[in-house]
Write a structure and sequence with these properties.
This protein is of the alpha+beta class. It has 18 helices and 13 strands. Strands 1, 2, 3, 4 and 6 form a five-stranded antiparallel sheet that branches. The chain is globular, with a radius of gyration of 23 Å. The termini are far apart. Residues 1-11, 16-59 and 86-94 have low confidence and may be disordered.
């Protein structure tokens, strides 16, 4: 359906529950719907002589659809956690839930015009429209925390204005706790797994992302770090219009990064080489990483062969010990010392010690499969996924042995999310990148910079 059609707009306009009671009520209706679905599914299975388990009753396609719809309605931390689960959990999720939750990466209702006007009046004052020659009421993008509008200033400059959904910042703690409860009752996670540190850090990170003044400052710092490197474009911040709940920046043209999938191999390779290089610089040079790998955070300018970087809310400091763990692991991989790779992975928490002890042959075979793929002649071909079924098959025993699950270091999790998301995008584009050469160069440059700092 055409997005400009009024009936289409009405279908997608949906007021965000902004008060705590309203959001709690939405979760309550979700819980009630899931419970009703469980009863119906349980009765159906008992009628045909089956004795279903609790997890099988919770994770039905109908219940997954309820979860996806309600999280899309709530937006904010609830929807963002759903997106993260669908993107990051991989084989831990049943395929039905994974498929339906994946809709959250592209599904977001937008604020009705009256609610949008209320937010902007609160941030800019009642006469906010006088600041612009034109402000487009229909958003050009809608996501988990806010929606983006195009606006034209009286002097002709075009801006992208991100407006935060009401109630998002105030509801983070409750939303995270409620989504965690949904995960627990779904029996996806073993009761012995201590999620408290992860949930606490998720709340802190989401609070940072909801502070647009902080994001604007991170955007400015990234622009400074990348100044002079023509491979990247960072929009200029519009300070006068930016508040904690509204982020205004230069509007930068660009194609969706996924659209490169149909471009020539050299274009895809160049885009992903720029992105992989940036991730390595974040890790070993900047000491700061934008940890949200959502594909919508990148666009591509084909005429200039430049990567447009958007959304810096998830930028966070990378502790030196985390960067050091990655450096040691990469160096062991470059040297093809597979025993050392395994030992460092265990020592630094990439792999749980108990899981490695109980499943060492499988862990070693996974490391060997990755090593063989990384050391084929020429650039690494992300489109060649021949090693992935081997990894999945070997990981099956570790996944099923829920008693050995552990939560890695929190900082490692955030960095690894960016690394994994970048690899996922490279696979989507079937890009070929000299990963080994880029990694060796980044580590060497980091060591030289450290030497200069000590001198």
């Amino acid at each position: 359906m055409n997005d400009d059609d009024p009936s289409s707009r009405r279908e997608r306009d949906r007021a965000v529950p902004s008060g705590r009671l309203a959001r709690l009520g939405t979760f309550g209706r979700l819980a009630g719907g899931v419970a009703g679905g469980m009863i119906a599914e349980g009765a159906r299975r008992l009628a045909v002589g089956e004795r279903p388990r609790l997890g099988e009753l919770v994770l039905t396609p109908a219940n997954a659809a309820r979860v996806a719809d309600r999280l899309s309605h709530l937006r904010g931390a609830a929807m963002k956690l759903g997106q993260m689960i669908s993107m990051d959990a991989g084989d831990l999720l049943p395929p039905e839930l994974s498929t339906i939750l994946a809709r959250l990466r592209n599904q977001a209702y937008r604020m009705p015009p009256q609610q949008l006007d209320g937010v902007l009046k609160a941030e800019w004052g009642g006469d906010w429209r006088r600041r612009f020659a034109r402000f487009e009421a229909s958003p050009i993008a809608a996501a988990s925390i806010g929606q983006v509008h195009r606006a034209t200033m009286p002097d002709g400059r075009v801006l992208a204005v991100k407006v935060q959904y009401p109630g998002v910042a105030e509801s983070i703690d409750a939303d995270v706790d409620n989504v965690a409860t949904l995960l627990r009752i779904s029996n996806l996670l073993p009761p012995s797994l201590n999620l408290a540190p992860l949930l606490a850090e998720a709340k802190r990170q989401l609070a940072d992302e909801a502070d647009y003044l902080r994001e604007g400052e991170q955007m400015r710092r990234y622009a400074d770090r990348l100044a002079g490197d023509r491979r990247y474009v960072v929009p200029a911040l519009e300070d006068a219009l930016t508040t904690r709940r509204v982020l205004a920046m230069e509007f930068v043209e660009g194609r969706p990064i996924e659209a490169l999938a149909d471009d020539e191999q050299a274009t895809r390779d160049g885009a992903m080489t720029a992105l992989v290089s940036l991730v390595l610089r974040e890790l070993f040079a900047f000491g700061v990483m934008q940890t949200d790998p959502n594909f919508a955070n990148y666009r591509w300018q084909p005429e200039a062969n430049r990567l447009v970087l958007l959304d810096f809310g998830a930028a966070r400091t990378v502790p030196s010990e985390t960067a050091e763990a990655y450096r040691r692991l990469i160096e062991a991989g470059l040297a093809r010392n597979l025993d050392n790779v395994r030992d460092i992975a265990i020592e630094t928490g990439f792999v749980g010690a108990q899981a490695a002890a109980r499943h060492r042959p499988a862990v070693d075979r996974m490391i060997a499969a990755i090593d063989a793929a990384m050391n084929r002649p020429g650039p690494f071909d992300f489109g060649d996924r021949a090693f992935v079924p081997v990894i999945r098959a070997e990981a099956r025993g570790l996944i099923e042995d829920r008693a050995t699950w552990h939560v890695p270091d929190i900082e490692t999790l955030f960095v690894q999310r960016k690394v994994s998301g970048t690899a996922l995008l490279a696979a989507r584009l079937k890009a070929r990148v000299d990963v080994r050469g880029l990694a060796a160069e980044a580590i060497d440059r980091g060591e030289r910079d450290a030497e200069r700092g000590r001198a």
